[in-house]
Amino acid sequence: xxxxxxxxxxxxxxxxxxxxxxxxxxxxxxxxxxxxxxxxxxxxxxxxxxxxxxxxxxxxxxxxxxxxxxxxxxxxxxxxxxxxxxxxxxxxxxxxxxxxxxxxxxxxxxxxxxxxxxxxxxxxxxxxxxxxxxxxxxxxxxxxxxxxxxxxxxxxxxxxxxxxxxxxxxxxxxxxxxxxxxxxxxxxxxxxxxxxxxxxxxxxxxxxxxxxxxxxxxxxxxxxxxxxxxxxxxxxxxxxxxxxxxxxxxxxxxxxxxxxxxxxxxxxxxxxxxxxxxxxxxxxxxxxxxxxxxxxxxxxxxxxxxxxxxxxxxxxxxxxxxxxxxxxxxxxxxxxxxxxxxxxxxxxxxxx
Length: 352
Prior knowledge:
The protein is an alpha/beta fold. It has a domain at 64-163 and 225-351: 3-Layer(aba) Sandwich (Rossmann fold). The protein has 12 helices and 11 strands. The longest helix is centred in the first third of the chain and has 22 residues, at 2-23.
């Protein structure tokens, strides 16, 4: 009996190991990149994504997802650095459907997009990396493009970047297969992959919470932040960007609309007032703003939804190939929006 149990365990583990690349995301080691000043996914590796999308991303130089060359030999064309979080990173779609690849495919003139977006980043990370890039002119960026999908990325308090390399995590990613790492994460964390799981079968009595639950506390203590407060926060961040970046800066506004809320499709942006404040602040600093909302809504009206699944719910996930194409089409407008001296032309909302 013990022998059968042992053989069954080995065969079951072998079956999971062989089939895991079809179903389990990969864990790629990170390295310190001196050009960007942050830890990035190891260049030359393949990054599998198996959640709300099914794709494999090639990691290029400087940790760029989906771009495998710096195009140093091709000195022609416009060179754009693309900044954002996981929405701009795009690991849930194949490389050919990422924003950079679609810009290269759709543009009649050479436009090189360098995808520097990383999941979890916000403007503190981007501004710090821009300052580091300016000291290491490995690429020669002509303009910086920021994908604005969520206001939280620009309304965070000004802070430093604590993104040092964690050697132990990189060592684990390098030594152990992905299915073992994923199994361990599922055991010790909850469904979000970050919250530590509490085991209810531990020895001793279980005491119920004496006060409100954690979620109840967060909901009751989380006061609604006014638009004026949020506007003040991104105003300070924009001023900081203006002081630290000499290259033109263009913002592509692509919020998570249209959205499906309570079974109804919502096409109106609930943050319109905040966007108007943001546009005026950008104009004051000489930054340009492109608005992708109408194109996103038009695609949804035509039955071509711009975003995928999240936790089984349709339409609330990351941008899919359609959403990335719409964003890429916004980037195609940038050469015409730059003045001869390289600065953005005065913003005209009629052009959006």
